[in-house]
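It is time I had a proper look at our fold encoding. Can you supply me with one protein entry, sequence and fold together? It will help me judge whether the discrete encoding reads sensibly. Leave the record below and I will have a look:
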Amino acid sequence: MGSFQTPITIAQAIERIKRNEYLLPVFQREFKWGPDRIEHLFDSLMLGYPFSSMLFWKVKGDMKASFRFYKFLDAYIEQQKTHNELMPTQGIHDFHAVLDGQQRLTSLFIGLCGSYAYHEYRRSWTYSEWTYPTRHLYLNVTSTYTDEESDQKYKFAFLNKADTEEADLYEDDNDEQWFRAGKILDLHHSDDFGIDEFVEEYGLVRDSKKMLQRLDKVIFTVSSINYYEEEETAPDKAVNIFVRINSGGMPLDFSDILMSIATATWKKEDARGEIYGLVDTVKALDFTIDKNYVLKAFLYLYHRDVRFRVVSFNNNFITTIEQNWKEIRNAIISLFEVLKTFGLNHYTLTSNNATLPVLYYMYHKNIYTNFATKTAYKKDREIIRKWLFASIIRRVFGSSADSVLTQTRRAFTADMEKQKTGEFALFPIKEINREIRRLGDVGDDFIEELLWTQKDSRYAFSILALLYPDMDYKNNNFNQDHMHPAASYEDIPQEAKDELGWECYNSILNLQMLDANENKSKQDKPLKAWVDQETLNCDKKRFMESHIIPQDVSLELSSFSEFIARRKDLLLSKMKELLN
């Protein structure tokens, strides 16, 4: 049972967070609010607007060791420091787990006791103080917004530490004065240097003093935090409450709920830390996955139903996942190591779902260790590479991804023993494609549309990589190159320019994949001059075939239209063979 408790002040809540009397349960989502939302929150408090009720779960006795709990963030760094620190709770006093109100409490804690860093526009994405500068919350005590300027009244803003030097009062280039919000905590508790002394020392005007007094009142006097305390000791009850109350406000998506259930049930491992650690490891390989991918991988590897459903994440299923977690984690890392050798990255891998059949094969066949490098797996890698690129290009895993995943897995699960006994000696591309119901042969219209794919689009790499399989993709030693150089576009005949335009000139029809040395040699050379140079000491016919250059047409820029028509025929034929 539970009940509403006597409301408390923001200052009381902050102190309880500092003393670790308020913690976050393992099934809580991470902090998501942006700086503008935090600034709006403080403005609302200054205006006396209602502060929505919160929901706390009183954790006591053996329950303290039954879950993992986390501390509140005080120094948030976008994309770099977003994970909460684990708090060992065995042997400590009873505490409250925050089921609803984490975003607001974290915002208050960061605003008054911490900092917020986000990426600086047009700077490198490599982390540093210059690219992700530390910012503290300040209140402008010189002016307020007018109704025409903003829906806010009070000017709260996260200001760059490099500008403010963390001063308690900062004067900007417009002679406006900004008060560091967290300083109000010191002023309130000081016997000999309070607001009056601060105002006097800095020569602040009366209106500025009123703002500081109002901020002090909001933090220390107004009991604005209403909360309901749930004393039910069963963890399942806490999870159910959490799921229900998070159906509104800033809602959890379905994977958040499943993540909550999964992480709340693991017995030995820190599930959330492990899963986010895996996400970060894959990110370091230049791919982007999230918890959705990891949860979907669990289902694809071990459950009959690949859909996100609460009933799927029962105790038996989650126990199986935890018992096999290290192997699953290692297989996923190995999978993305293989994809990196294919030349793929977060931009060109357009469907993470397309990788799951590969993961299933590597994992259940237990060949994921060093799969990216072992000579014994070379043929397997070639088959997987071709299938994966074809699947990406054909956009097999689209809006009906769950249906397609279910179909692809039948190639394995129709007779699981086939894989375990080695009957699937190689990745079963034929069996998988046979199971995908809508995967018929592609026609000329579809391929023609593909050939108009623009250089540097997300799909251009996959198309060119499929057409040119012999590049050094493992060491990133390749370049997408215009056959007729980009710099020469203005020199093509006007008739060709009117008929075909830049979209043709910049498409697969005029693109090839070259290794870095070839590309350096070619640069902006005319196509004919480059071909003549490269074939002085080699078989010209073989060179032309390997670069998919038509041999029965002039390579002069003046014959661009004829060149495109003949190359289109070559590419149509080759793509039809590769995709079918």
User: Anything to note?
Assistant: The mean pLDDT is 89. The longest helix spans residues 560-579.
